[in-house]
Every structure is written in structure tokens, then in C-alpha cells.
Amino acid sequence: MARIYNSPGKYVQGPDALAELARYVEPLGSKVLALSTPSGIERIGDKVRRGFESSSADVALEAFNGECCDTEIARLGEVARAAGCDVIAGIGGGKVLDTAKAVAYQLNAPVIVCPTAASSDAPCSALSVIYTEDGAFDRYLYLNANPDVVLMDTTVIAAAPPRLIVSGMGDALATYFEAKASVDADGSTCAGGQATAAALALARLCYDTLMADGVKAKLAVEAGCLTPAVEHVIEANTLLSGIGFESCGLAAAHAVHNGLTLLPETHAMLHGEKVAFGALVQLVLEDAPTETIEQVLGFCMEVGLPTTLADLGVEDASRDHLMPVAERACAATDTMGNLPFAVTPAMVCDAIIAADALGRYYHLDGE
Ligand SMILES: [Zn+2]
Question: Pairing mode, if any, of strands 31-36 and 111-115?
Fold first, then answer.
């Protein structure tokens, strides 16, 4: 199998980067359809429009109706055609970005992705999650290419609710462990080949960046500040984790996340919050060194990521309640098989309960 490294065509990150959107549209086309929620357009519309005043390119801002579903994707495709737009941009959260990617794919047009939070590692990837009109998961749409440009306005991102960047750290916390496991297993990656040394190095840098700057970044955004630590964590959550997961592979942490979604009591938790607990479960399965487990647990507690089932809203920690979660995590279609050893649902169920026990033990220790 060949080694494949996927990445966005260009990654741009800095204060007020959205004011420069026109500069990145110009090489791609003459007019961009920029999607955002109505409140998003209120917040960033003027900044974006001003950037186009001295540009050869033009912008049409369009309100997103709230769901990344086939009817909305088709509607926006028509809007783009009618307005003569040859570039698509999404400015907002995951659903806006996934919709922009899907509309661009449908029109065979270039796409610029502009996240307004650093809450997950999805923006850089060649993937959209499509929902039904009433918001149920429908399917993954695998795109031909990664976004042409990922544009991160760190002024906007640092001002988002702190829980979002912390959740992004939870998603990014798992990246290196899942990448390393997949590489050790000679697994195939989301990019469709084997991992490169380059992608694994970025996954490692992702972890090291969180350990160096995660706590500082959390405190800074809570204080309303944009600091170098915040910039570093935004890059780790988005670029390093994005390339790390797509070009190295996912393993137990995301499989456990997917299992946990079976429990309605976890639905109020964000993606990265569940993934962080999944990372602990993976470390238990691998019997990682105590120092590694202590470092990960300490980090989670300092930034406010869940380390116990109770933190996730799961009060019933019985084997009966958790076995379906473990079975779902071991589904043939999921990524548990990327661990370099055979895993059964019973092993995963034990690891979930043992991870919870570790989390509770260290909670008590800190009291
Ligand atoms: Zn994730």
C-alpha cells in the first residue's frame, strides 16, 4: 500500500484573517458565495465585506438554514449558480463548513473553510457529515479533495465560548495516540493509504503543543485574551490534529466516542469531550505507562475535560449499561480494528470501567 499525505491547499491563521478573505478568493475565482448563520453574518459580515472593497473579486453573503442536509445543499447550489459565484466559502461551525464543502463538491468549485471556533479537527479534512432534514446522521460524504484554503481568524476564534477550544483540545489529545496505534498496526488511514513519517511527526507535535500551551491557552481565552499560547493551540486543534487524524488514522478513542453516542445522557457533551474520555480508555487498553496516564489525566482535569463517566453525564456505570457502548465501539465499520492487537467488546467494556476508576482515583487525589 502506498503512503498518502492529505492536507488543505493552504492554511492561513492570524488575527482578523477574515478581513483578508478577498485575497484568497482572487486566485480561485471572481465571486465567492459565503455561507454563515444569520447571527454569524451579523458578527463578521462587515469585516468580510470591507475586505472586498479594494478587490477584483466579489462576495455574496448567504444565510445558512441550520442543517447540513441534501435539500439545503441543493438550494445553496442554485443560489450560487444564480448569483454567478465560482468559489464557495463557509464561515462558522461544523455544519456550515460541511455544507460549504458539500456545495462546492456538487458544483465542482473551489472551497474556502473559515471556522469561527477551534472545537474539532474536521475543518482541514476531505469529509462532510450529511444529516437528514430533522438532524439525524445520514452519511459521510467523501470529497475529491481537501479544502483549497482553511482560513482561521484567531480574533474571532479566541472570543468564542472557552468550552469550544477546550473541546477541540480533547479531540486533539487523542490524535497522537490514535495515530501511533494505527501506524503500529500498519492500518490504512482516512486518506486511503499508509501513514507518512511527516503526518506522524505532526501528530506528535499536536500532543506536545497541548502539554506545553493547553492550560495557558484555556486561561487566556477565559480572560478574553489572544496570546501566543492560544495561537499555538488553535493550530494544534485544527491543522496538526486535522492532518494527524486524516493521514495517520483513528483508533480506539474515536470508536469509544461513537459507542458513547448510544447513551442519550451523553448528548449534551461535545464531540471532543467524549473523545478525551475515549483517549483514556485507549490508554487503559494499551496498558500505557503510568506517567503517560497521569499526564493525560492531569491535563484533562486542568483544562476541564471529562475523566469519569459521571463527568460525561453517565450515572449508571454497570457492565449491563456499558456493554452496548463497547459493542458499538467494536463494530466492523469503526476504527477499533486499527489497534495493533485484537480487541473484544468485553475488553473494551472493562477498559471503560477501569478508565472511570482511574479518573475517580485521581479526582480524589486532588481533593
Ligand atoms: Zn474527532
Answer: unpaired
Please report the pLDDT score of residue 366 as a whole number.
53
> How far away, in angstroms, is 171 Cα from ligand 1 center?
5
Q: Measure 55 CA to ligand 1 centroid, in angstroms.
A: 36
Is 190 inside any structural domain? no
Number of compact structural domains in the chain: 2
150 with 36, same domain: the answer is yes
- pLDDT over 70 (residue 299): yes
CA pair distance 8, 206, nearest whole angstrom: 17
**Total-model pTM:** 0.96
List the domain range (segments joined by +) for residue 149.
11-159
End-to-end CA, the chain: 51
Query: Ligand 1 centre and the CA of 169: distance in Å?
Result: 10
Task: Note the pLDDT tens digit of each residue in 158-185.
Answer: 999 999 999 999 999 999 999 999 999 9
Question: Does 112 fall in a domain?
Answer: yes
Residue the block writes with cell 472557552: 162
Ligand 1 centroid from CA 275, angstroms:
7
Kindly state the average pLDDT of the residues 279-290: 98
Place of cell 503517560: 292
Task: Supply the residues annotated as catalytic.
Answer: 171, 254, 257, 271
The domain boundary residue, chosen from 142, 159, 176: 159
Residues 15 and 155 in one domain: yes
* CATH code assigned at 101: 3.40.50.1970
Q: What Å distances lie between residue 290 and 90, 297, 351, 358, CA to CA? A: 43, 10, 15, 11
The answer to whether 100 and 35 have CB atoms below 8 angstroms apart is yes
User: Considering Cα of 224, then 208, then 183, then 174, what sign does the dihedral take?
Assistant: negative
Confidence of residue 1 (pLDDT cuts 50, 70, 90): confident
Which tens digit of pLDDT belongs to each residue from 2-22?
999 999 999 999 999 999 999
Q: How many angstroms separate the CA atoms of 57 and 84, rounded?
A: 12
Locate 89 and state its grid cell. 466559502
- Report how far residue 276's alpha carbon sits from residue 298's, in angstroms, rounded to the nearest whole number: 12
Between strands 87-92 and 31-36, the pairing is parallel
Q: Per the domain annotation, does 35 fall within a domain? A: yes
